[in-house]
Design a protein that fits this description.
Elements lengths: L3 H10 L39 E4 L3 H4 L3 E4 L5 E4 L18 E5 L8 E6 L7 E6 L7 E7 L10 E5 L2 E3 L4 E3 L1 E8 L12 E8 L6 E6 L19 E5 L2 E6 L12 E6 L9 E5 L19 E5 L2 E6 L14 E6 L19 H6 L1
The structure holds calcium ion (CA) (3 copies).
Length: 353
């Protein structure tokens, strides 16, 4: 059976609008009402049935950063904190280090979530809401929670769907934010992630959980510099967390990936599974500095994990890298066309080494 979202995506692919669209500062919230609430096309900021493209440019303008937005009609715009009507970024904020689209308020226009992990030394995320004109409205900033550092280094938005007896319906969005520089008890840079909810009509996020490797249900224990939450992916009710600095046995920085799931009945309680290259079914074996989990992606139950430094020593210092492709299909994991994070390393991680 074809899901409503897939049908909408296929119909939307045949639609091409040529009307000029403006991407500018905030306007009235009334524009958001013109979005098509039945539109489920992923990443469609102006609700015209065709996905749009957003790209973070965190090092531009003395590392203040920005986000490049290309609408499906060809209109291109450059988004900064100022263009969103918010206080300007400072040099070194790295606005745009992570960026993703998701329909946070479920009105049919995709919205932007942007990370600025060095803002004020602890990080922040920005929300901006799409409209049918392409204008981004109602932008807000959410500073790092107390104790978080590197907040906004990584992002993923999940859209759990629930069966109401006749069809799958979305009830809320789950925004997950990585803060991999966070200290956990006495362990510097052990890392944390924060889980927020957003429901229909919301313009702000509700905090659901802070998760570290010290949290109930999360495997392993926090250790210095392992950077839990450096990378994030997920779909349905499954969050994928990359910890490239994790030691495995006696191998430092071998890296791990954690899968965290919760239920509709209890969305704030998570159970976890830890994967390393020593896990049964994963090719190869964990070696020092592999940094397995340096990038992660999950789509339609297919999990891809990068080990960007694998085989470095064997190739005279060159960082050859590898990916591990792990088929992971199980009941309760529902496909959703959420853009996966790109394969990249984070600038702060390089500095921390
Ligand atoms: Ca569009
Ligand atoms: Ca929206
Ligand atoms: Ca650990």
């Amino acid at each position: 059976m074809t899901s409503p979202s897939l049908r909408a995506a296929r119909l939307g692919a045949a639609v091409l609008l040529t009307l000029p669209v403006l991407l500018a500062g905030p306007t009235s919230a009334a524009e958001a009402a013109a979005c098509d609430p039945l539109n489920h096309v992923a990443g469609d900021i102006n609700s015209d049935g065709v996905s749009d493209v957003v790209t973070g440019v965190p090092r531009i303008d003395n590392k203040q950063g920005g986000v490049d937005v290309l609408l499906s009609n060809g209109t291109r715009s450059f988004i900064t904190a100022v263009s969103l009507g918010l206080p300007a970024s400072a040099p070194g904020d790295y606005f745009g280090t992570a960026v993703t689209t998701a329909d946070l308020n479920l009105d049919g226009c995709a919205d932007l979530v942007i990370g600025a992990p060095e803002r004020n030394g602890t990080g922040a995320i920005y929300l901006a809401f799409g409209t049918s004109s392409g204008t981004l409205v109602n932008a807000t900033i959410r500073d790092a929670p107390t104790g978080a550092r590197g907040f906004g280094s990584s992002l993923v938005v999940l859209a759990p769907e629930e069966w109401n007896g006749t069809s799958w319906v979305r009830t809320h969005q789950r925004v997950v934010v990585g803060a991999p520089q966070s200290d956990v008890y006495s362990h510097p840079f052990a890392g944390a992630i924060y889980v927020f909810h957003s429901a229909a009509g919301d313009t702000a996020l509700t905090n659901v959980a802070q998760l570290t490797q010290a949290s109930l249900g999360v495997p392993d224990v926090p250790e210095d510099g392992e950077a839990f939450g450096t990378t994030l992916a997920g779909e349905g009710r499954t969050i994928v967390v990359g910890t490239p600095g994790e030691s495995v046995g006696t191998a430092p920085d071998a890296g791990s990936v954690t899968l965290l799931s919760s239920t509709a009945a209890d969305p704030s309680t998570f159970t976890g599974k830890r994967i390393t290259q020593d896990t049964a079914g994963v090719p190869g074996y964990a070696e020092e500095y592999d940094q397995f989990g340096g990038a992660v992606a999950l789509r339609d139950g297919h999990l891809v994990i990068a080990a960007p430094h694998r085989e470095r020593r064997r190739h005279h210092g060159r960082r050859r890298g590898a990916t591990r492709d792990v088929e992971r299909r199980h009941e309760g994991l529902h496909p959703w066309p959420q853009p996966a994070p790109g394969l990249r390393r984070h600038s702060w991680l390089k500095r921390a080494q």
